[in-house]
Specification:
Layout (H helix, E strand, L loop, with lengths): L1 H11 L23 H6 L7 H11 L3 H12 L19 H6 L8 H18 L4 H10 L1 H6 L7 H24 L1
């Protein structure tokens, strides 16, 4: 079973979207409508739920959105490290982590707190507009301002679609688990 889960995690590890080269996403059983039933039977979507819910409530952020971003960024791997240096569950860049006072970005609780704090900041900056906040989480707030909305980057559009799809699915799962 452990070998299967390891292979599954390798198969669903997200593509790094921060590169200039557009890459097609890895097929993810949580993002694929035909495999959704199987995903609901797996335990991946339950990882870190207590911390995510508690920290999200502290910052007024939807925990389903946080789970969707973590899923898209790191597949719930707290040791994730991108080729550009983004670290941990919510893939915080070192400068961002420092700004958010995250001492150890590989510590799940610190990373979640920093990522949720940043997401809260983006939601406030973009007047609660989830689409622009998620686009800014991926492409940077400067690009969202520059293009007066979602930047015309394929990778950002794909990221946005994926996060919003997962957010809807996590909303149902979180509601069912309460």
């Amino acid at each position: 079973m452990k070998g299967f889960l390891f292979a599954l995690l390798l198969a669903i590890t997200p593509v790094t979207f921060a590169t200039t080269e557009v890459q097609e996403p890895v097929s993810c059983y949580a993002c694929n409508e035909r495999l959704l039933e199987r995903w609901q039977q797996e335990k991946l979507h339950r990882r870190f739920t207590n911390d995510i819910v508690n920290i999200s409530e502290q910052y007024g952020v939807d925990p389903a959105l946080v789970k969707a971003i973590i899923h898209s960024e790191s597949s719930f791997n707290p040791r994730a490290l991108s080729s550009l240096g983004a670290q941990g569950l919510m893939q915080l860049m070192p400068d961002t982590a420092e700004w958010l006072k995250v001492k150890n970005p590989f510590d799940p609780r610190q990373n979640i707190r920093g990522g949720v704090k940043y997401l809260s900041y983006l939601l406030k900056r973009f007047d609660g507009d989830v689409v622009r906040a998620v686009a800014a989480y991926n492409a940077g707030p400067g690009n969202v301002n520059k293009y007066k909305g979602v930047p015309p980057f394929k990778e950002t559009k794909h990221y946005l679609d994926r996060v919003l799809t997962l957010k809807d699915r996590y909303t149902v799962l979180l509601k069912d688990s309460v």
